[in-house]
Fold:
Amino acid sequence: MRVCRLALASALAMICSDGVAAKEATADARRIHEEAMVLDTHLDTPANFRRPGWSIADNHEHEGDLSQVDLPRMKAGGLDGGFWVIYTAQGARDDAGKRAARDHGLDRLVSIHKMLAANADEMELALTADDAERIASAGKRVSFISMENAAPLASDPTLLTAYHRLGLRMMGVTHVRNNDFGDSSTDPAGPEWKGLSPAGRALVEQANRLGIVLDASHASDAVFDQLLALSKAPIVLSHTSADAIYDHPRNIDDARLRQLAAKGGVIHVNAFGGYLVNITKIPEREAAMDALAEKYGPESQLPVARVPAYLAERRVIEERFPMKRATFDDYMRHLLHILKVAGVDHVGIGADWDGGGGVAGMEDVSALPRITEALLTAGYTEQEVRKIWSGNLLRVIREAQAVASARR
Ligand SMILES: [Zn+2]
Structure:
């Protein structure tokens, strides 16, 4: 939300690395985008914070190191901030696994605070909707904290109080596997708890008492239904797309979208290609990528100095086994459908940046003005665009905190 006017010529054409022409947003769309508070509910960028040689203050290129969010690109794309995610991969659920998840979660929380402290003149921790407005007005990046997968709490769910004191304001129950709190939408073993476990139900109560927004992304439909029924505050989907456009267990159906809206909740639409369109996996490509991952380790931990060699090998595999990619138009099909079904008061953006999100024509956050332009072209007003970019989210945060105050 910079208060300035960019003298950009309209309709500049850029050709992206994938050969897709990305039209620069028109000057009018750009102005509306800059003046709105633009927040994304699912920024997986903390995965890069421990990466040797990587700093959020530096200007990176997606084609250079595969990252999608840094301060220069947030400014270029008019992204005022959002939720930095404490993501934990679901590991073993024995005592050692629970301790490992606890330590990982705390380490990631610390890494977010260290990043904020190192960039205090540009970014600030947000605890409330009022904080978000004040921070964005000052020209700084609004930094909320969320958790994806409650596994770090499995050894001691009362840790949620400590997380809340250290800034946590949104909480997703599961990731791609079932955990001690509930069922995932994508566990190959199928449901284990028929929704939430007893510990999961207690977690809902605790989150409501603290004013932490509950997030049903990745959770099974039964968990979604039970969160909606049990939570005293509206819930969100922080990064989810539409079943009606591409039927996938990770997406949500129209009936549930209407139920979410009826309870005041908000769905933030995901830009994860594999959930937007049907992408047939190529076994030879998968095997080659697995071998590459084995050789270099996870992308999020790749030292910057090793990236060129890694990318060169990756490109050879991609050229040998080319695979279909979701496009910006595919993303907009999901977003416009969800807007039609849930209504403009119940939709936001959570594109899964640095967590697998991004489509041909919108590779990183610098391309976000394209969404504003496409919404205006589809007939949404400036005021509606502002709701989608943050107004709806801030309403839910306010309501969750009002519920908490009333229960104290
Ligand atoms: Zn996710």
Q: What stands out?
A: The chain has one domain: 37-279+324-407. Residues 148, 218, 239, 352, 355 surround zinc ion (CB under 6 Å).
